[in-house]
Amino acid sequence: MATNSALATHTQQREFLTFVLGEEHYALDIMAVKEIRGYEAVTRIANAPPFIKGVLNLRGDIVPIVDLRMKFNVGEATYTEFTIVIMLHVDNRIVGVVVDGVSDVINLSDDEIRPPPEFGVAFDSQYLVGLAAVDEQLVILVNIEKLISSDELGLFEQKQNTVQE
Amino acid sequence: MSIEMEQFHNVFFEESQEHLDEMEQFLMELDLDSPDKELLNSIFRAAHSIKGGSGIFGFDALTGLTHVMENLLDRARKDSLTLTLSIVDVLLSTVDILKGILHSYRTGGDIDWSAIAAGTEALDAVLGTSAPSESQTQGYGLFEQPLLVNEPEGFGLFADEPGAEKDEGFGFFAPSDEPVSARNEDEQAFGLFEPLPPASEKPAEAETAQKQPEEKSAPQPLSRSATERKGGAAASESSTIRVDTQKIDALVNLVGELVITQSMLSMISGNDSAEAEERRLAALAELERNTREIQEAVMSMRMLPMSFVFNRFPRLVRDLSGKLGKSVELCIEGGSTEIDKGLIEKLVDPLTHLVRNSIDHGIEKPQRRTECGKNEEGLLTLRAAHKGGSILISIIDDGAGLNRERILAKAYENSVYVPEHPSDTDVWNLIFAPGFSTAAEVTDVSGRGVGMDVVRRNIEALGGRVEIESEQGQGAAFHIRLPLTLAILDGMCVAVDGQVYVVPLVNIIESIQPQPEQIKSMGNDKLLWVRDEYWPLLQLGQHMGVQARHQDATQGIVVLIESAKKRFGLLVDSLVGQQQVVIKSLEQHYKRVAGVAGATIMGDGSVALIIDVESLSSKVKTAPQPVREAS
């Protein structure tokens, strides 16, 4: 990291964690990641949409688990011993995200990030930071904070608006 | 304002609030015929501490007023001025003004200079001397600097010169992360405990409170009780709590034992011999005892004595009875009963309301009392006591009692639902209906009809209940029953479709496996005939979104539940067992879920949801009894 930033004197370097959903490669800002762990059984919550798998106990905190594969219809929502949960720290809250796997931590400078496409990705473009090519592999950079705190996921109580239920 | 300054300010606000509360309490305690010197000294010192602190921070409005107040108090304690009831009244209203100023500084609001001027004038009038004109013309700046060293004498109890000591105390503020050991040497009576773990600036803030020299002047009764501290300017819930050092020492001891047990266990681990097995069992038993004791010790840190709430009532009773021309003696019992801090903060409003009610509606005017052959002075008792696993707070008056006819008449008038042939208890409970008041006219004390329903709602929100006892002409008693703590719950674990749910034990009457002839159908709803009553049946699985193994009630277990409003049966697959659970918030990382009060972590690390009985009871559609409204 130190050497990298020394090289990139003019552009901002950021670290991203890449993960796999179905066939596609995604990446999120590593600063939002609290930890990575295997999938374990969760406690279901009444009247929650199917992509909210439930809650689990993360060392005393009751943390909701979201399956992005179900939310965005990518890949198959199967749970094997290789299924991964990324624990994210967003807005003083902890949220777990189920993905098919995590692959790498990559360094990207701002000029390596290209603007996101308007279509062709499972995520709405408002939740994307951009695209980047890493080892000839296209990686989609996700604005995970915006996605997790969005009303679309409905994970958090909406701030001002009336409750959606 | 820099962050550090803000920390000092917060400490000053806390301390001053305490001093003001003390002053008020001691002023109430003063026996005017033979004033206690020590008490007068305490009041004086409290005023002086506020003056000194406000001078340092430049809170001029406080400095000016407390200075005049201090002059008066100084003369009183030196016997050159005899305190009378009217002087105490002036002092009390000065305390009120000071509280107002403090609040303005704290919240950044505007200072009411005219009130200060009026207060200063009133004090000056009592002093009978023309006080320095600066105090009237807001030239408070003059006091700022000299005050610290102004009165080197007259501090009987201060060992050191106050100014110097203060500096020494503030020396600790430099944001150091001093460990506990540094704290203990100085102020033995105070420990600090922070219920909300993160927030890195807290240790320094804790230190400040610890080292604040004014504490030396804090008199015993209050200094032993932990005191609420408010964090940010707008924060209404305090995030820190003071804890008796003894409690912390006990906890440190227990943790020490835990470490020993742990090393014992790790020593034996891997050894399979019979002797090791025996020692392992012993160590596990030790561990269990340790865990329980640590849990108790930690919970006790959240406990505050009821006197924390009760102490504000002498003033209220005095003011109110004066205003209403009644003579009331207040009797406080069980002030040392400890109760969870979270509960205490939310108890203040309901209790205040009930006390006001008792004085306004309950206790009669002196003349009427003599006519009834009662003592001219009414007796109002505030009592707190532990009863079983709960705490019982009673507000008892020997006044007129509730008037059955008037309540009924009022209920019909406001078309409040009244059951047929209402029992006394039914009638008393009518006063909890929204918009209900029997006061003949609306006063500023009571009668607006917003109140008793709010009281009951607040108490129920805390997991408690209100009961009323009343005897016409003899008096009335309001009993508030509350759980000891909000953090731990006695629960019955039930299972539906392999998921475990926790039902609060207080709501459970019994659990039965019904016989087919006990189940009756009414439309789509099922009713259960048990205990000579029809109970509506709710399927827990249906409300929790899981598939129950048994749709048929006779195959599963029905838990009979009583909520504040309704009684119903809850159909579950099976009972898992009864246990104490630690309540965890779902909202912290997720959001509120209908029908769920929170979550807990079971022994195997899995999460179980705690059922919110009150919100579930609102799903019960039909009234359980075929009794219909009389009107």
From TrEMBL, chain A:
Known PROSITE patterns for this protein?
CHEW (PS50851)
Which keywords belong to this entry?
Cytoplasm
Q: Which residues form the CheW-like domain?
A: 13-153
Q: Where in the cell is it found?
A: Cytoplasm
Q: What InterPro entries is this protein classified in?
A: CheW (IPR039315), CheW-like_dom_sf (IPR036061), CheW-lke_dom (IPR002545)
Pfam families, per the entry? CheW
Q: What is its main location?
A: cytoplasm
Name the SMART domains for this protein.
CheW (SM00260)
Q: Which SUPFAM superfamilies does the entry mention?
A: CheW-like
Q: What is this protein called?
A: Chemotaxis protein CheW
**Organism source for this protein?**
Bowmanella denitrificans
